[in-house]
Structures are given as C-alpha cells and as structure tokens.
Amino acid sequence: MIVSAWWFLASAIPVLMLGELLVRKIKFLSRFNIPAPVVGGLLISLAVLLVKLSGAFDFGLATKVDAKWWTWLVTTEIEWAKTPKVEVHRPFLVAFFTCIGLNASWSLVKRGGIQVLIFLIIAAVLALFQNIISVALAKILGVPLLLGVVCGSTTMTGGHATALGFAGELEKAGLPGAGVLGAAAATFGLIAGGLIGGPLGGALIRKKKLQSTAPREVHLESGQSSEPGILNDLRALASYGKQALPIILLLLVCIKIGSWISYFIQQTHVPLPMIKASFSPAFNFDFDLSFEKQKLTFPIYMGAMLLGVTIRNVVDAVGGRWIKTEIVDTMSSVMLGIFLAIAMMSLNFIELASAAGPMLVILAVQVGVMALFAWFVTFRIMGRDFEAAVMSGGHCGFGLGATPNAVANMKSLVETFGPAPRAFLVVPIVGAFLMDFLNAINITFFINLVK
What is the pTM (predicted TM-score) of this model? Predict the structure, then answer.
C-alpha cells in the first residue's frame, strides 16, 4: 500500500503544533533552539521507521504529486504539459526562498553600516572553507564527494531549509538519500552550534577582559522576533488585511516567472573547471585542471529568489514602501514551517546507515573549524571588542545551523556581560537572508564541480 503525499500536506500544521508543544515542554529542545517543524517532523518519520522495522504494516510513502492545479505555479508550461510529478512541499520551499529575496533590501543592509558587509564577507569565506574542507575529507575517507557538499555549507551555514532545498539537486547529481543525510547533518550542527557559541564568546570576553560600552538601558531583546508559532503567524498574517494582498500576489508572480528564469538558467551550458588530482606511491602529486561545458545545477528556487531581490530593490529605489518587511517575514515563517514539517516527515532514515560514520568525522572537523574561525578570524576582523566577542558567539550559532541559534547564543552572553546592540543588528541581517543568497551560489558551484 502506498500512502498519498497529500497526507503530508494535510498533517503539516498539526505536526507543526506538536513540535511547538514539545519544544515548550522539553528544555533541551528549547535550549538549543531546535526548530518546532524539525521536532514534530522527525518524531513522525521515526515513528514510521519503527512501524516499518516491526513488519506490522507493509506500506510506502509517496512524496510527489502530479495534480496540474498544484504543479502549475512551480513549473514552466513546457514542463507542466508533460504532467510532471513534483514534491508536494515544493510550492512552500520556493515561496520561502522567494520571501528571502523580497526581504533582501539594500536599505536594510545600509542600516548596519560597513560592519554588515564585513561580517557578510567573513561568513561567505567560512562557507567556502566549509565546502573545501568537507569535500577534501570526503575524498580522503573514500565516500562520495557530494556527501562532502552535504556536510559543508549546505547544512552548516545553511541549516535544515537549505539542506532540504538542495536535496533534489543533490539526488539528481548522484547522491541517493540526500534529504535524510542533510537533515541529520543539520540537526548535528544545530546542537553543536548551541553548545559552543556561548562558551566561546564568554571565554573571549573573560580572556580579553572586555566590557560592554552600550548603556544598560538598551533592551536585551534587540533583534528577536515576536512569539513564535504557526497559529500566531497565521493570525498575524490575517491581521495585516489588505496590506498583505499585493505582497501575496507579488510572491505568486515571482514564483511563476521565477520558474522560467530557473528553467533557462539550467538549459545554459557554461565551461566548468574539472580537477583531477592523484598521489603516486613515491609521493609525487599530479594535478590536472581542464574546463568542460556542462549544464549548471541550480536549486529550483533560484530564479524566484533572484527575481524577488531585483523587484524589492527596484521598488525601494523608486521610493516605494508597499513591500513591508514584517509582512514578508510572517509569510516566510509560515512557508518555512510547512515546508520543513512535510520534508522532515517524509525522511527515510534507513538511507542514513551507510554514511553515518564518515559523516560524523566530517561534522566533528567542521565544529572544530567553526570554533577556531570564530576565535581567530571573526573576533579579530569584527574589531576585537566586546561586540566582536558577542558576534563570534553568534557566528557559531548560524555558522553551524541557524540564525535563531545565533540570537540565542548572543542573548545568553548579553544577559551575563551586558548589552551588544550592534551585534543584534549585524548578525541577524547577515544570517537571516543575505548569507542564504550567497550560500546558494557557493553550494551550486561545488555541486557542479564534484558531480
């Protein structure tokens, strides 16, 4: 018996609410900012695994649908006419990353001044190192190089959303079970980022004898969002009323036109570097670099996200103020929650067994690299002061998982040592959307390089 993918869609909000309940009740989950859809979705996927292993029921889970009314928005008419099967969560995935594009306002970047651009460059360099290190370790360990891409910036800087967003492209490139591998690596990163960020920032503050220079009156919740929860998000979205309608329409237009942009990008052949390296028994190193024309592998949401960035900044440039950041944020939260819940519920953990050992090795190295990078690079370049130490702790949070982890790390530091308003402005701006955009390009490059 095959269970329809529509069941995933129907149960997404109840599973989200289950995850939220567990996060509130279990301190470990709230301490490390494990996302509610990840908790709820993982619980369902593990329950399915136990039922399968018990042999009580013989069933399979469909994750794709071919209903034309559902697939039209996220496919071109060329593809749509062939009645393709697409993941039931694809519209929510594309909508989430389109929201990131619509919120990528240059005016917001300018609010943080030059520090935002400096921190963005630092984060981009780390993401690049994460991919180089993980791909090199995958080569040494004799596992698929695409597994190295999964354990690199895809899951470390990217987190669950990016990992599951690229899962389809990674599977097409030759890595079966990329979704479950990415989910496992991203969960490892979330926990590790929450464990090391606060202690590392605190150690810097104590060792360097740093002190906050901001007035004590500065509110500690700078940079934090409102009370989370899918029902609260839906209520907030409804409360915006007519203000939200043109933004929802713009979102739909970006998704549809973006499908065509992505289609044409993926039809383009460009020269890509092909690297071959080997060691001889006499320790001679042979290196060969050539270029071959290949189709680019891009995530399905790239076209819509690029279009969102363009439209937002054109609207801002001509003085338009109707794209409200708070409305886009709320829409983004709803889309991400539903997408993650469905994606996590549909994971097949049996596919994880063969790669578990090498993954742990790569991920352990990534945690060490993150700690060293935050201590010796992030802290020094961001100014060697109290704010820089807080940002270093925050960088551990989103460099190994997610921006909420970064905010939680920084909050724990400022509650102990004093306010850091600049850190709460710079880190969320970079971690929430700017880095997602650059990281998508970074991951795409490495997929095309190693596939």
Answer: 0.75
Token match 């509650």: residue?
415
Could you give phi then psi for residue 361, rounded to 5 degrees?
-65, -50
Instruction: Please report the pLDDT score of residue 177 as a whole number.
Output: 87
Measured over the CA atoms of residue 390, residue 395, residue 401 and residue 406, the dihedral's sign is positive
CA atoms within 13 A on the CB side of 268: 13
CB-CB contact of 417 with 102 (8 Å): no
What is the DSSP code string of 29-49? HHHTT--HHHHHHHHHHHHHH
Number of neighbouring beta carbons within 10 Å of residue 367: 20
> Is 128:149 a contact under the CB 8 Å cutoff?
no
> Tens digits of per-residue pLDDT, 353-391?
767 889 999 999 999 999 999 999 999 999 999 999 999
Q: How many angstroms separate the CA atoms of 433 and 86, rounded?
A: 26
Q: Could you give the angle at which helices 356-373 and 178-207 cross, rounded to 10 degrees? A: 30
Across 88-106, b (16+ Cβ under 10 Å) vs e yields bbbbbbbbbbbbbbbbbbe
* DSSP code, position 275: E
Q: What confidence category does residue 224 fall into, taking pLDDT thresholds of 50, 70 and 90?
A: very low
Helix/strand/coil percent split, the chain, to 5: 70, 5, 20
